[in-house]
Give the backbone structure.
Amino acid sequence: MERDALPQSRAAGSWPGDATSWRKTPLSAVTVQVLSAILLVCLGVLLGATWTIQVLQPQLRRQAEQRRRLNEEWSAVRAARRQRRECPRCAALLTERDWYLAPALVEDLRYDD
């Protein structure tokens, strides 16, 4: 018998490490459990993201409205600066150092008596 020849008992069957052996493995319970766990985690992440967006939506709308209001106010300040005349809030003449200083209103001040 030659050294490189296959033994007679193994020649007819497949070897344990054969290339096609992975295709013949049955789907085990562990594989099903792992796939189920991955699916549940994905569904949980999707549900959590949807719930978070629904909860935060009123706050995000409020912040968007504040941003729009601030943009309008800053555009008024920029327009006044381009005209170099007076403050859009109080109509006082502005000097160069007053461009970004907001005038303090009396009702805005709080006293700690």
